[in-house]
Every structure is written in structure tokens, then in C-alpha cells.
Batch of 2 targets.
Target 1
Amino acid sequence: MGVQLTRGYSSDAAISPFLPMRRTVAKAERAGLSVGDYLDRYSAEPGATAATVEAMLRLGGLEKGVERVCEIGPGSGRYAAPVLTALQPRSYEVYETAADWIRYLRKEFPQLTVQPADGHTLRHTATESVDLVHSHKLFNYIPFVATLGYLAEMARVVRPGGVVAFDVMTEDCLNDAATTTWLDHPDRGIIYSLTPRRWALDFLARRGLDLLGNHFVPLSGMRTELLVFRRR
């Protein structure tokens, strides 16, 4: 019937479930694709994940290896995999709230350190301790107040000279095609959360983060904006 029963453990909108792991993995296997390639085809376009990671590393000047990386909402690990390959960090910690994807990550990426996640903070990561903290395809779906908390936490945990990177849906991502789709199908548009670009830049600048550059990322016929910062 297309229904999957999962155990719920929170009513917090910031950690509501997204794509179910077993169904997603099964669909990828039937399509003869890796989970990452399947998700690119499902919600973006082929090669979008690789292009996003390449842009993040290039804009952040991260061609060389780093010591510590932290990722918020890794899900299937499709962004973690190329980052691990490119940077070969000594430590890679993740904050994930979906229990099924946590099991998948522990099996597929045993080198990851899975931190206890509350959907709002990076409380188990020390201040000014990581070289790169990043998040992808998450802040577009969670409540704005949860994104606000995560941005403050990313600024807290990154070391001076380190890089913060994430994608959000800003006003620069909107066009007539996207808004027409939302008006015609409000059940689709209601899942997205917008982040004011100017506000985000000012908010992070006050916390010592300078914008290095941006890159637009396709998402379900629209796009999000990857923003990359360096901590002063």
C-alpha cells in the first residue's frame, strides 16, 4: 500500500522525519543506482551532490586535508562520502535525528562519530574545535527558528580560519516558475522554509563569519543557495 510504519520519538517539528531509509535504499537498488545518485535524480539532477561538494571545497580553499569535520543532517551520507575522500579528516562527526538513517550511516560509514542530536544544537561539539562544519538540503525544510539555532551553533564550533557552509532557500532562489508551482500545488510549497539572505549574512558577520562565495544548487525544479564562510 506504499505505507511504512516507523517508531516515533518526538513531536518537535525541527526533527520530523523526511525520506524513509528502507524505502529509499530499496528504490535506489531497483534503479541500479547508489543511494546518493538516486537522491540526486529524485530531488535535484545527476551530479548535483558532487558539484555542490566541489564548490564548497573550492570556495572554502579546502583542497588540503583537515583535522575535524562536523555535518548536520547527513541523512544517507551522500555529502559525507566525497568530503571524506577529498579531505581525509582525522575526525568526522555528524548530527542526525532520523533513527533509520543513523543505523544506515553506522553500517556504511563506520568511521563517522554519530553525536546525540536534539534537532537544535551541536552541544556535544566543543567551541572553536572544527575545521569545517556544513549542512545540505536541511535548512530548506526545518522551521526557521531551528535554522537560526543551527547557524549560531555553526559559528560557535568552527575554529578561527575554519569554514562554515550550508544551503538555504533565499529570495534569490525564487522565480515565477517556482512560485506558480507553489500556488497551483500548495501542498508542495508548504514544505519549504525561506531564509532571508541579507539577514543571514549580517547575522553570521556579527559572529565573525565572512562570506567567501556562493553556488546555486538544483532542488525539485527550483534551487537553493550554497553559502560558504570563513571564521575570522
Target 2
Amino acid sequence: MGSKSSRSRRYAEEFKRDAVALVCSSGRTVTEVARELGISVEGLRNWV
């Protein structure tokens, strides 16, 4: 019962582009950026 929802969140295309750009230009890892943005590491990794 304490598990995450099985529904996936939908993010705007602009948010996805900005998140990917942040990974590519900042020199930080996908994990660091995902934690900062409050999104899943797996989701961000798929976008990249």
C-alpha cells in the first residue's frame, strides 16, 4: 500500500527538453538532475 502509483506522470515537451538540456550542458549526472527536478531517474534517462 505504500507503493508508488502505477499511473505515469505526463510532462510537457518543453519541460522534457529543458531537463535533457540541463543534463547535457551542466556536466552533472542524470541522477543528480533528476533528484534536483523531483523526477524519476529512469524517466529522465529515457528522455536523454
